Amino acid sequence: MKRMMSLGMLTGGGTGNHPAAWMHPDTNAGASTDIAFLRGLVELAERGKFDLFFVADTPAARTENLHAWSRFPMFMNVLEPVTLLTALASATSRIGLGGTVSTSFSEPYNVARQFASLDHVTAGRAAWNVVTSANDYAARNFGQAMLPPHALRYERAGEFVDLVRKLWDTWDDDAFIRDRDRGLYFDPARMHVTHHEGKYFKLDGALNVARSPQGHPVIIQAGASETGLDLAARTAEVVFASASNPDDAKRNYDDLKGRLAKYGRAPDDLKILAGLPIVLGRTQAEAEDKAQALQDMIHPDVGRFRLGTDLEADLSDLPLDEPIPLHRLPKSANQHKAFFDGIMKIIREENPTLRQLYLRYERGRKTIKGTPSQIADVMEAWFTSQACDGFMMQFQVLPGGLDDFVAGVVPELQRRGLFRLDYAGSTLRDHLGLRRPENTNTRSSG
Ligand SMILES: Cc1cc2nc3c(=O)[nH]c(=O)nc-3n(C[C@H](O)[C@H](O)[C@H](O)COP(=O)(O)O)c2cc1C
Predict the structure, then answer these.
(1) Tens-digit pLDDT profile for residues 137-177
(2) Which residue puts its alpha carbon closest to atom 30 of ligand 1?
(3) How many angstroms is it from 87 CA to the middle of ligand 1?
(4) CB burial readout 109-131, b (16+ within 10 A) else e
(5) What is the Cα–Cα distance from 176 to 187, expressed in whole angstroms?
(6) What is the 208 CA–ligand 1 centroid distance (Å)?
(7) What pLDDT is recorded for position 443?
(8) Please, what's the largest Cα pairwise distance for the chain?
(9) 6 CA distance to ligand 1 centroid (A)?
(10) Which of 105, 129, 276, when mutated, tests ligand 1's pocket best, judged by the most ligand atoms within 8 Å of its CB?
């Protein structure tokens, strides 16, 4: 069978993934909590035959640098993902519904129960994005002054995911026999109690909901570090990759797929979706203009703050129309090395003013601007060279970006035989070509 690409989309708070999207006249500034609007958005993605509609999250509002966050309100006013996805389930029947829940600030039992329930409610369309979280704002909401170190967060995440999967296997698929003649609602022999005592969790019990339609909801991850990649190789079924060029993407793809054998997994057990920020136009020039118009809407406080975050320097007092004095910058990065090095390269080679720099800075990503056929060309090239199995589309402005994509790019991909004409199955696993996991308890006992 011909290999087909998978398509997911990031909701970007309902207004889009550009920091100034909420101010754009074609967006709904109140989208992030407007359930009628968000239903319309997911319906549109389903008309485009997308595999996955995805809601990112962090369990915290930012409480510092509000001069910038008040103009770039990412995660400042959002619905809790599982609640939102449950509401979106009733507006759709085929598209997969995925959301983030952090392993650093919840318990395995909660997450197992929530996503098993979501998988029942959606008839097999649920996906959990496993993240360890990367900001101290979240930590402070859960009794910690700051995040635990990266390695410990991932160690906890590993134990967390294993335990969630064990709980999802509490019941055999046919455990609830509901035999009225014998008066037997379930068969006790087909129930498997979990006894777990690990470094981070202690649990002695069983999930109080039947094994879900997909067996296990789909597990997503986006970790980029060694430990993140290793956890993905062991447990993830979808990975969001974020390379900004096809060569890096291909190298990362081969590297991650190559790690699977160590865990007894086949390359096809994990699908890698490349993040792809795009702006569409009827001509390339129109797309470029649209993208630039958005960049121009970034408030200087936001531009300074975003740049300063990645340069690990306070730029708040610097004049906008002069280059950043080099003595104000650290010699090397402590947080995002790739972002830091990327900006320093531009500074060294072109010496732009602070304003020029933030107006062109895209945080390691390169937004692809072009016509539908140009965008389809890029997607085809990445996909056929096996740099990815599909894409996480990032539309700068919603709903317009998605609308244009469904009207222009999806038919083009379909014409080229790269994307489905219609859903073949009904579950997210069907769309992604992922097998339904066996129940490990049944397998070991029988
Ligand atoms: C498409 C995509 C979506 C992501 N969604 C979230 C999210 O919702 N919440 C979150 O805390 N991190 C999110 N991340 C960040 C990753 O989970 C991860 O923290 C980051 O890639 C750094 O990896 P590392 O922790 O292995 O260094 C996302 C990353 C990507 C590429």
Answers:
(1) 999 999 999 999 989 999 999 999 999 999 999 999 999 99
(2) 222
(3) 24
(4) bebbbbbbbbbbbbebbbbbbbb
(5) 7
(6) 30
(7) 60
(8) 83
(9) 19
(10) 129
pLDDT of residue 184: 98
Per-residue confidence (pLDDT) for residue 444, from 0 to 100: 52
Beta-carbon contacts of residue 176 (< 8 Å; ≥ 6 apart): 185, 186, 210
All residue ranges of the chain with pLDDT < 50 are 445-446
Q: Which pLDDT does position 446 carry in this prediction?
A: 42
For each of the domains in the chain, give its residue range(s) and CATH number, in order of start: 6-281+371-445 (3.20.20.30), 292-360 (no CATH)
Q: Ligand 1, residues 100, 101, 259: which to mutate, most atoms within 8 A of Cβ?
A: 100
Chain centre to alpha carbon of residue 367: 17
Identify whether the C-beta of residue 56 lies closer than 8 Å to the C-beta of residue 78.
Answer: no
Ligand 1 pocket test target in 240, 244, 336, 365 with most atoms within 8 Å of CB: 240
Q: What is the 16 CA–ligand 1 centroid distance (Å)?
A: 17
**What's the pLDDT score for residue 223?**
84
